[in-house]
């Protein structure tokens, strides 16, 4: 028969055993933010008991402050998710299996709607700083595209260029004459957005197809790349990314 003293002793023992695995309460926003900052900076020495062994790192930005608030609201009730937020962007760290990270990000984005861009990378805790850097670069590229969820495989060519500054510089110089002429820039962007479909690009710009063809020929003359060639069009697309890749408003992790 268990006595009251035995019950208290058992409770004390269980509390001592289990307390290292308790996560900070979900209401403790400041503690969770600091945990996220520590994990993303690579300063995790393995002493944070109770945290997941791997996370999906979602770097996000929004065209409005409401978008960031929406992200926070969407994960507020998930006690295992950590968030490091800024004014118009931030990071979400969600514990999940490697095969589930993209699905989690897409479900989160669907709940938000609006102009929110997300870049997701998955990694074990020891590699979260690398995952954060990857997600940041992917987000820089994605923020120049339609709102949605992106991962590395969606932007491989652009990503490779951004990681090679000397290549990015050469491509930037190549595309500058086009960027300086708005009609040519608009024509090229429309042509890229429509995957090289002339008729669709002309409709997008509300111009005659012959006008579009003329502008694309000027693009070729200025850059040496023929937009109607798939390989050259990819080069031009990456050059635009190198020229205009923005700095996304993410909070510091150090």
UniProtKB/TrEMBL annotation:
InterPro entries the UniProt entry points to: CdaR-like_regulators, Homeodomain-like_sf, PucR_C-HTH_dom, PucR_C-HTH_sf
Pfam family, one: HTH_30
SUPFAM superfamilies on file: Homeodomain-like
Domain PucR C-terminal helix-turn-helix: 184-242
Domain of life, source organism: Bacteria
Protein name, UniProt field: Helix-turn-helix domain-containing protein
Organism: Lentzea miocenica
């Amino acid at each position: 028969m268990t006595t009251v003293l035995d019950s208290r002793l058992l409770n004390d023992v269980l509390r001592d055993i289990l307390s290292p695995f308790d996560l900070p309460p979900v209401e403790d926003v400041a503690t969770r933010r600091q945990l996220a900052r520590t994990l993303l900076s690579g300063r995790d020495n393995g002493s944070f008991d109770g945290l997941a062994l791997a996370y999906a790192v979602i770097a996000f930005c929004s065209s409005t402050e409401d978008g960031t608030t929406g992200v926070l609201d969407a994960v507020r009730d998930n006690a295992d998710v950590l968030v490091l937020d800024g004014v118009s962007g931030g990071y979400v760290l969600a514990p999940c299996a490697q095969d589930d990270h993209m699905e989690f990000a897409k479900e989160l984005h669907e709940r938000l709607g609006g102009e929110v861009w997300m870049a997701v990378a998955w990694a074990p805790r020891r590699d979260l700083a690398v995952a954060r850097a990857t997600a940041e670069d992917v987000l820089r590229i994605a923020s120049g595209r339609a709102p949605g969820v992106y991962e590395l495989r969606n932007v491989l060519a652009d990503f490779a260029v951004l990681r090679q500054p000397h290549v990015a510089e050469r491509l930037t110089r190549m595309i500058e004459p086009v960027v300086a002429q708005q009609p040519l820039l608009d024509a090229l962007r429309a042509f890229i957005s429509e995957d090289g479909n002339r008729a669709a690009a002309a409709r997008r710009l509300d111009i005659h197809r012959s006008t579009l063809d003329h502008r694309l020929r000027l693009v070729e003359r200025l850059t040496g790349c023929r937009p109607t060639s798939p390989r050259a069009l990819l080069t031009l697309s990456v050059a635009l990314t190198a020229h205009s890749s923005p700095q996304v408003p993410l909070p510091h992790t150090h």
